[in-house]
Each structure stands twice: as structure tokens, then as C-alpha cells.
Write a structure and sequence with these properties.
single chain; 197 residues; mainly alpha; 64% helix
Length: 197
């Protein structure tokens, strides 16, 4: 998919017209139940016989989703320059995660899962409902929390301990992303321990 070209349309109008979406009655967070991401990895792993390869494919799908969310929301015109800068850093982290996972999948003889189309991500993540920077940050925080939970939740299922170490590293990155975004939303640090998993 190519990056959108410059246009005379304001960025937000271009974003919405390009995607052909109107805001829906659903909230932007309806899909953000953290276990859903863990369930997506588990479902993919079960489809592949519960193998490490299946778990990796599910993780790759999550990273592709995160990259798309940051890219599409970042191009919406809803983010201030400072927030966009952070979003691009996080997107870069997700691209590095994607590359590591894809390399492992290929090394194991698999074909890395392809990302969905932008239209599918917009629909699945309800990106058309985003109205302001706060909505984008809430969305990102929920995705990061879900990804951290997904990685932590699969560590014990992995047979290869090196991949388990990678998942621990990935979950740490996701947790840092969530902490930054949670703080940006003005939320307090949860008082209970064991925030992820």
C-alpha cells in the first residue's frame, strides 16, 4: 500500500474520504478488551496445531495491526506534532517487532502472514469513529495493553525458550508504550500488581 499523496483537502477530510467511512455509533474502544488480542494469538496457534509457528503468526498479525493503526491514525490530522512524534517512534518499534517475528517464521519454514488491507483495519478497529487526539491515544493505549497481555499470556505455551525470551522482550515494549499512553491520558498508575497477563 502506498502512502497517500499530498492533496488540497485538509488532512482529516482526506483521511475520511479516502477510507469512505463515516463515524459510527460504536465507541472507539468497543473492541479493545485486552483478552481479545490474546485470544487472537491462541486461535491462530490452535489453527496451526498449537505450534510455536502458529503463535508467531498470531503475534505477527498483532504487530501488523499496530503498525496500521499508528500509520492510519497518524495520517488523520488528529495528532499534534508532539504526539505524532511519539506515535512514529512506537510505530517504528512495532515495525522492528514485525521484522523479528517474520524472520523467525521464515527461518522455521513458514510464510509470514500478510497484513490486512487498510480498509479492513479501519473497519475492525473502528478508526472512522476517531474524532480527536484523545480518541487516538485511548485507542493506542488499548491496543498496547492488549498486545502486552497477549505476549505475556503466550510465553508459557511456547516450546522454544528463545522465542519465549523474545515474547518477554516484546511484552515489555508493549507495556512501556501502554504506560506512556496511559500517563498521557492523565490516568493514574493502577494500584494492583500484575498489570499484564
Amino acid at each position: 500500500m502506498t502512502e497517500p499523496s499530498d492533496s488540497t483537502l485538509p488532512a482529516r477530510r482526506q483521511f475520511l474520504s479516502q477510507l469512505g467511512l463515516a463515524a459510527t455509533g460504536m465507541t472507539a474502544l468497543a473492541f479493545l478488551d485486552a483478552p481479545a488480542s490474546a485470544a487472537a494469538i491462541k486461535k491462530r496457534a490452535l489453527a496451526d496445531g498449537g505450534s510455536d509457528l502458529g503463535i508467531l503468526q498470531g503475534a505477527l498479525a498483532l504487530e501488523n495491526e499496530g503498525i496500521a493503526a499508528y500509520r492510519i491514525a497518524g495520517g488523520s490530522g488528529l495528532l499534534t506534532p508532539g504526539t505524532l512524534k511519539v506515535a512514529l517512534v512506537f510505530k517504528g518499534h512495532h515495525e522492528a517487532h514485525r521484522d523479528s517475528l517474520a524472520a523467525l517464521i521464515s527461518k522455521m519454514g513458514g510464510k509470514p502472514a500478510e497484513p490486512k488491507s487498510d480498509a479492513e483495519y479501519v473497519k475492525n478497529l473502528d478508526l472512522g469513529a476517531l474524532k480527536n487526539e484523545g480518541d487516538v491515544v485511548k485507542l493506542a493505549a488499548g491496543l498496547e495493553q492488549g498486545a502486552a497481555n497477549a505476549y505475556v499470556g503466550q510465553v508459557a505455551a511456547l516450546k522454544d525458550k528463545q522465542i519465549a525470551v523474545l515474547f518477554a522482550q516484546l511484552s515489555t515494549d508493549e507495556a512501556v508504550h501502554w504506560a506512556v499512553l496511559n500517563g498521557a491520558l492523565g490516568n493514574s498508575i493502577p494500584s494492583t500488581a500484575y498489570l499484564f497477563g
